[in-house]
Write a structure and sequence with these properties.
The complex is a heterodimer of chains A (330) and B (546). With 330 residues, chain A is mostly helical. Helices cover 77% and strands 1% of the residues of chain A. Chain B has a 6-stranded mixed beta sheet, sandwiched between helices. The model of chain B is unreliable at 1-12 and 535-546 (pLDDT under 50). Classes of the chains: A mainly alpha (330), B alpha/beta (546).
Amino acid sequence: MTESRLHAMPRLIGWRVLKMALMVLAIVVVNFLLIHAAPGDPASAIAGQSGQADAEFMRQLREQFGLDKPLPVQLWIYIERVLTFDLGVSHRLQRPVLTVILERLPATLLLTGSAFLIALSSGIALGVRAARKPGGIADTVIMGVSLFFYATPLFLVGIVLVLVFGVWLNWLPTFGMETVDVPLHGLARVLDVAWHAVLPVVTLAVFYSAVYVRLTRASMLEVSSYPFVKTARAKGATEHRVTWVHVLRNALLPVITLAGIQAGHLIGGSVLVETVFAWPGIGSLAFEALIARDYDLLLGIFLCTSVVVLVFNLLTDLLYLVFDPRVQAL
Amino acid sequence: MAQSASVEAGYAMTKKLLGIDDLSIGLPVYADRPRAVSKVSFSLNEGEILCVVGESGSGKSMIANAIMGLLPRELPVLGGKIDLQGIDLLTQTPAQLRSLRGSRMGTVFQEPMAALNPLMRIGDQIAEVFYVHGLPGKPQQIIDLLRAVNLPDPEALIHVYPHMLSGGQRQRVVIAMAIALEPALLIADEPTTALDVTTQAQILNLIREIQRRRNSGVLFITHDFGVVREIADRVIVMKDGELVEHGTVSDVLKRPSHDYTKKLLAAVPKPNTGAPRPRSERTILKASHLRKTFWRGNKEVAALNDINLDLRKGETIGLVGESGSGKSTFARTIVNLIAPDSGEIRFEGTDLHSLSRKQWKPFRKRIQFLFQDPFESLDPRRSVGDIIAAGPMAHGASAAEARAVAKEKLRLVSLDPSALDRWPHEFSGGQRQRIGIARALAMNAELLIADEPVSALDVSVQAQILDLLEGLRDKLGLSMLFITHDMRVAAQICDRIAVMKLGQIVEEAPAREILSNPQHPYTKTLIASVPGLSGESANHRTVEAL
């Protein structure tokens, strides 16, 4: 029965991908309408920058970007282009949107990916430790610290870290992704980037970690009261084995759910941190595009982040299917 | 007497396995009594089954936890001695106790549905018993164990996850784990309470069979005197943490010495032996050719398969069946919570399922429901008065009128009217069920559908609620559809009994006819499975029927 469940996987995935494609289309439409509902447009932004804003120039600009056409027509043109993987051109950077996004993507993935992995592993480990003796010293300290970081705004943590470790102690770089004045290669460059990544990654990780600590602890305590845990003890299993084999595996199910949701936000969720640390990723790109009313670029980033969310949802469900034998369908 | 003397002589020859001496277990300061278990002493010999009987909160499970060294932190052992084959368990280190668990003492718990790790294959969970004791645990040993507990197709079963098994099958797996290392002591804590009666009979047989084959000692904890009669050699009775009675099964069942034991035995439901009540000519509820099919995945499940039932005015029909037989689906169909696929239900001649929402409203008053779980069926955030008054107010009574009704109904169910302004959590299970009855009666119901109303209650409380329902029925002329899995309960309160199996009523007749002369093979199995009803104890053929 278990085997047939996993055999059915390709067909299930096929269905899900089809549903996801339709979802992406709906997202494209909503994103488009949303962005056009906001006041201002690229023409006004450019005109504002260039300083010569006579009506004729604005009209020309709008004609050039196709902004003079009725909204449904603009939407149709946009969808047609997206379907052929043409995300348009950023008017500010004068380069294809797809190229710009792909250029910035690795920096963001490096930042958010490592923050995510650190947050998840440290969160689970600390959550398990805290649940070992509820009300004990370790529990009180872990829960207090995690509450503090959970309640503190992300950018504030970032700024404090910059002040302490960058400005006062001068231990760590606080700006950008690598040393620009001296070109480095090979291992030296890898270490340089890692060195630069420490503060932004820690800033992002402490926030997410706080959530995992609390969830893991609550889930561990709940599962500890289930009868099968008593069965395991009655077998003569050690406390170590009871915790890691019986309780934790079951307690991880809700953590996986939350991790799946957060993994989907890896690309979109780092705007603040990237801005504070001038990290050259998607987040800061989105921020700049928003200020400049760079419609095509902004829509491209939206689309990209939506697809990532959907992909991670699918991955989470697949993980559940493998992890929990009771789950029968996606 | 000669019988019991020879039994005592027999004990003297066998070896003592477990000795409990003056055991006391504490309770947190906020508890209703100072000790969970107070100065309890008893012993268990090899090859013997000792039943520990008591109601909830009597401390019987705490003794089992103390033996295993698995008492919660808040409940410390205050004093006494537990001796297992010469080992003083209370002085063992946690690591020493751990190595004794599973090897010298195996345990079977109450909740088979939750007693297995849902993410681990059956084979792995059994193999774990060997693994944690540093033994290899070969696949063949595991297959042999599954065979020993009479599970079908053990080769395939080791690869299966717990959720694919029924409750009875899971309990067999738990038993297989408990006996894997051939422990001298088997502790069974209410192992059949959550199971259907036919499954319970099989599991009791299995435990007895294993105990005889291996000559192990069994400490069997139960609240059910029927089960005691089926399985026990000796019995101890617990009340509020104290041991009140101790003796051989025949002595305790036939000649109980303590008042509490007498009270418990008297509370065991017994077939009603009074004159049968005359059957009214007037039909109040009539179900004809009722069908309802559910889809579970790709499988069609006939929850109701051509149900016909004729309930007369003032009559009580017991709907008896095991879980999944369709009893509750039928009850829910009557009150329109589930729409049938076909067939009709007439209440005093009106077809209930052709009614509009508005037309239904008067019938809601006349048909009322009584639920199983007294702890979950009352809104914890409303006062008792509000709960009872909600019905009349929904049907147009003013707040003052509804409150007066609530007061009157509380008196009817023998609760003090001061209960009006108190909260559900302040009441015990039995009192809450009384509140549930008051709530159902607040609308002057004519038909009461009681879905397992006493299943969650201790036997002495159960007897009180059954008495109350019987009294109210006679006083108010209520008609009742009484749903239960317990043939003994049905036999006590019902005029007629309908036996349900797989969505069908396989047999329906006056209660005493069903009991004395069951026609359908399933009814016969069901009655034969009722613990203690067969009239003879498996271990002591001389014990007479209760």
